[in-house]
Design brief:
alpha/beta, 7-stranded parallel β-sheet, 37 strands, globular, 11 helices, 9-stranded mixed β-sheet, 619 residues
């Protein structure tokens, strides 16, 4: 078993300054930028005003103005003047991310990561008196980070891996912060701030462990009185001893969550693939599935032997891309950047230190230019390596470097293993290029930090564990399986309409889940996410199985059920009732459709909303 962190997405920074890290372009047909000769700007401004323009920006080499009701060609005609170099649309910029981390320096103020907002965890108050405890099976929680309620944290030492409070890499500390970093005015805040945690360090120095380690860890979690087990880890192949350990934990009333995996394919990882374990996928700040998030099918077998089980595939997702959380002290890098006193998002690339000076646009940074001496170089991405750009800036006498992305979004990168430059270098977003190039001065700093970013289903899993602990603390009489059902019943649908292999039932929603349990009690009123078709959710009293097969190429599905009490049952396909039939425990849906397809079935007591959980069949 290995930690499920995706190393491809591990920017070691915190954006200090603006909360907006990326922007999207939206055309505004009435507003235009006019590039002009500075010595004749007054003439052009007068001409624009005579044409009815309202001037908004008067900058070095250009103005921006609104020409109400005028097209680009109209404005070009009105400003046909030798002092006008170019007329172009002034494109709108707006936040691209639906959710953003708070901006600022976590050593000075408390920041809320975007996934807290996305999952509605900021809308529910954690009850610290409810006795919730999350057991984190990972690489340890380093005691050097002060952003935890340490009096509420215990752990188990292991002769093979060492003390639980000494990190075996930053992974476990990062995971624990997402679950329960304290609400204390600095650092970050977790999903269930200050929740009791029990830490079990299963990873050795090489970063891996065995199924037997996890089986024993599950027993130790139980002995510690944990309600929830979080495992941001996985590997190939099932193991009966390991599986039984988690079955026992769940049978005793607990909830187990584990990472789906980071290979971006349909392979089933374990322990997430066990029915007793809730498999968690990762989404980004825009409610899109992470490209690395694994998506195993809920179906297994072929032909008449096809069976469907929604507990062996992704059930829900949470934010897991560029997740801000805790690190062992000094284990991450923090960068900050401002231009003309205005903060901009940045990413720490290399070399700690500070630089504050006039700006110098070094183009692609592919050559030495003594004009950069004593200045901060602003450099476009492309042509040569990041190292060459920063090295050329330093050889030119530059005191710092800002490399701007050449595509939308933040530039994350390093200068390579052979880096021998010394000036601080940061990445910047393409959307901020114009402002940075036009700035008179830039201030940048890079320093060691106790906070940083990681990406992976490893980061999404503790978000779900934290949401579960948060809501469960307000409904402490519920069982783990009831909490699992409520997470699915209230998830926000994302991706394809209805349940799918990537998101499962969708993105977890703490406030909706809390309201749902308040209104319906622990048993709830729905066995799955809100997929449309009316209130036909399951209570768990009816058990349904579905088997898909083909007859002469035509699709058929055999349904069988138990525990219905009425004389008739209603059969639903994809949220729509297709039949009312005798409660004899069996029904065949002859679809007479050839080729592929995916169908979701439920059986309900006739005329009621007492239903089975949804079961899917894929051809």
């Amino acid at each position: 078993m290995v930690p499920m962190k995706n190393n491809k997405f591990t920017p070691s920074l915190i954006a200090a300054g603006l909360a907006l890290s990326s922007y999207g372009a939206l055309a505004d047909d009435d507003r235009y930028i006019i590039q002009v000769d500075n010595n004749a700007k007054g003439i052009v401004k007068a001409l624009a005003k005579q044409s009815g323009a309202q001037i908004h920006v008067d900058a070095d080499g250009f103005i921006a103005a609104t020409f109400s009701g005028k097209s680009l060609d109209d404005v070009k005609g009105l400003l046909n003047n030798p002092h006008v170099k170019l007329v172009e649309a002034d494109q709108k910029r707006a936040p691209m991310a639906l959710f953003n981390d708070d901006a600022g320096d976590p050593t000075q103020t408390q920041l809320t990561p975007y996934a807290v907002y996305q999952s509605q965890a900021d809308q529910v108050v954690f009850d610290s008196n409810a006795g919730m405890k999350v057991c984190v099976i990972d690489s340890g929680l380093d005691s050097s980070n002060a952003d935890f309620n340490w009096s509420a944290i215990t752990g188990d030492n292991d002769v093979g891996t060492g003390n639980w409070f000494e990190n075996g890499g930053p992974h476990g500390t990062h995971v624990a912060g997402t679950i329960g970093a304290a609400d204390n005015g600095f650092g970050v805040v977790g999903m269930a701030p200050g929740v009791d945690m029990h830490i079990i360090k299963v990873f050795n120095a090489a970063g891996w462990g065995y199924s037997s380690d996890l089986a024993q860890a599950a027993q130790l979690c139980s002995q510690a009185g944990a309600n929830i087990i979080n495992m941001s880890l996985g590997g190939g192949g099932a193991n009966s001893t390991e599986e039984n350990a988690f079955k026992n934990f769940v049978a005793a009333g607990g909830l187990v969550v584990a990472a789906a995996g980071n290979d971006g394919n349909s392979v089933r990882s374990y322990p997430a693939g066990y029915s007793s374990v809730m498999m968690i996928g990762a989404n980004d700040a825009d409610n899109n599935i992470a490209d690395f998030s694994q998506y195993p099918s809920c179906s297994s077998g072929r032909g008449k032997r096809v069976t469907t089980d929604e507990t062996i595939c992704v059930e829900v997702t949470a934010g897991g891309v560029d997740t801000l959380s805790t690190y062992p002290a000094g284990g991450a890098s923090l960068s900050a950047m401002s231009a003309d006193g205005v903060g901009f998002a940045s990413s720490a690339m290399e070399n700690t230190g500070t630089a504050s000076a006039a700006t110098y646009f070094l183009g692609l940074g592919d050559a030495v230019d003594t004009g950069a001496a004593g200045k901060v170089c602003v450099i476009d991405r492309g042509s040569v390596s990041f190292y060459d750009k920063v090295n050329n800036c330093e050889l030119s006498g530059g005191v710092g470097a800002v490399i701007v992305n050449n595509e939308p979004g933040m530039l994350y990168g390093t200068l390579g293993d052979t880096n021998n430059t010394s000036i601080p270098a940061v990445g910047a977003a393409f959307e901020d290029r114009s402002a940075l190039v036009a700035a008179s001065t830039i201030d940048i700093s890079i320093g060691a930090s106790d906070y940083g970013y990681m990406s992976g289903t490893s980061m999404a899993t503790p978000a779900v564990a934290g949401v579960a602990a948060l809501v469960w603390s307000n409904h402490p009489t519920c069982t783990g399986e009831e909490i699992r059902d409520a997470l699915k019943a209230t998830a926000m649908d994302a991706g394809a309409t209805g349940k799918d292999d990537f998101f499962g039932y969708g993105i977890v929603q703490a406030a909706d889940m809390n309201d749902y349990l308040t209104q319906n009690g622990c048993a709830g009123g729905n066995g799955g996410g809100d997929n449309g078709g009316g209130d036909t959710g399951g209570t768990g009293d009816l058990t349904l199985t579905a088997t898909g097969y083909k007859v002469k190429g035509a699709q058929r599905v055999d349904l069988s059920w138990t525990d219905a009490t009425s004389s008739n049952v209603d059969v639903y396909r994809n949220g729509n009732m297709i039949a009312t039939t005798a409660n004899d425990g069996a029904y065949t849906d002859a679809l007479n459709v050839k080729g592929g397809g995916s169908y979701s079935y439920q059986v309900c007591e006739a005329g009621t909303t007492t239903c089975s959980a949804s079961v899917s069949v894929v051809f």
